[in-house]
Write a structure and sequence with these properties.
mainly alpha; 2 helices; about 70% helix
Length: about 70
Amino acid sequence: MYLVLSNYASIYIANHEIQQTERAIQEQVKVNEGLSLQVMELSDPDRILSMAKEMGMILDENNVRFTHTSN
């Protein structure tokens, strides 16, 4: 009887830890998705160009090279 109860308690604890880990993973996925959206917004070429102009930078079309490719 003790062995059965001990095993049941171990299974219950393990199941609880798994559920906590799954919740933590789901929360982290949400955070990652939010951060990915923020990266996309912040890396918008029009936004970068606008900020560069605000800082007094001038666009020299002859000196522009695209090094980033979209996936």
